Amino acid sequence: MSPGHHLVQGTVLVFLAEALLPLTGIVTASFLTRSLGAGNYGLLTLSVTLVSWVEFAIVSLFARATVKIIGDAEDWRPVGAAILRLHLFVSIAAMAGCWVLAKPCARLLGEPELAAYLALFALDLPIFALAHCHRSILIGRGRYAERARTSAARWITRLILIILLVESGLSVNGAILGTIGASLVELLIARYYIRPSWSAPAVAPGSLWSYAVPIFLATLTLRLLGMGLFLLKMLGASAEQAGIYGAAQNVSFVMPGVLAVSLSPLLQSTITRVMREDDLPAARTLARNAIRTVVGMLPLAVVAAAASDDVAILLFGAQFAGAGPLLAILVFAGLAMMMINLINAILIACGKPSWTLWLAAPLLPAAIAGHLAAIPRFGPIGAASVNTVVAGLGALAGVIAVCKWLQIEAPAATLFRSVALSWMAYALVHFWPAHGLAAVGKMAVASVLVLGGFIALGEFRQTEIRFFRSILRQTFSRQPATDVQ
User: Fold this and answer.
1) For residue 67, which of 151, 143, 149 has the smallest C-alpha distance?
2) Per 3-state DSSP, what percentage of the chain is helix, strand, and coil (rounded to 5)?
3) pLDDT at residue 483 greater than cutoff 60
4) Which of 80, 92, 370, 481 is most buried by a 10 A CB count?
5) How far is it, in rounded angstroms, from Cα 234 to Cα 143?
6) Is the CB of residue 304 less than 8 Å from the CB of residue 384?
7) d(Cα 69, Cα 63) in Å, to the nearest integer?
8) How far apart are CA 14 and CA 266, in angstroms?
9) What is the pLDDT of residues 303-323, one digit of tens each?
10) DSSP string covering 62-84
């Protein structure tokens, strides 16, 4: 199978698996809000938020560096053993830190009950970290189908366990134990597919930290770009305005986020392996097609923006109608952040981890300055606009950097077709008098017409059409293998 076939097939499978997160998440949230009540659900949300930040830090430190190091290694086993132990040591230290800080955090937030929930939830840290370690090794080894199965198992198990345990009377503790159980199931399934050793000799490559540190700092910087909500509240917005902005921001980043999670690690792994084989033309093709994919999604973002008022009311109710104009702006920030994620994956695969930090570093001060200038005057619209402009500039700078480094041409023809089709899609959705559930239908029709427009305008060559047909034939025909030490 060619690298392109392998990447696209893996991306489809991982996307389908990760798409279970928003689907099962909606069902889980609906069940928990009704079962726990507002007070207990609030405590659960605080616990999840705080522990998730710690888990995010661990994953940000190691995940992309692990994919790169494993992809470069001639023999992954000693490297995998070293990375496995690093995940274990760091996550146990984080768990101990959470236990120590549980009561102070609870007192600071004025919720004494929160301490017990944080202490219990901290048990998830080493299990979650080890599961992610195995996932990253699977990706580095090119085992994309197995990586998809681990995620699918996690989200389905999480939904089932939470419902069973909460219904049995365990309340918030049941929801936390269900999440821990899902992490454990994911770890066990991942170890069925690949088994880095706990006891064999381990070799930590010297390049690990030279990748891990700048990638971690760049990822943290990009995560902080979403602080518009907090600055909005600090600069005088009401709780209602903050809630509406938060709802619009969450929806805007869901699908681009799932697509980025599905594609960027796999893209990094695939380019790493073709670069190791000195196949620079293949790396250039993969990188250009990744950029081209995001550019080609512009008309779909326009469809979402044109129907934003209907989407906001359909998802949140009439009281959130004000989220529509914000969603129309922030959807482009989500697309830009997806581009940034793919650009970072390409740069890491090409051995340029520090470039990710240099490209991300100017964005945070620019965002803060922009928010401080725009929010007092324009309110939530100002915050959304700053977020989108800064993310767009970061994406543009990243595309320029990758195109110059790999000496590839920017997909100008794709951009031209995308802009032309965006006007068509906007006019169709804007002037089509369909609302409520019917708005979903008109968005689907517009999306299909966009795809047809790309085909009619010659975006896809015959070789690419044959390529996608072969992907459909091959996607579910391969049998899983086991990579055991």
Assistant:
1) 143
2) 85, 0, 15
3) no
4) 80
5) 45
6) no
7) 10
8) 9
9) 999 998 888 888 777 777 888
10) HHHHHHHHHHH-SSHHHHHHHHH
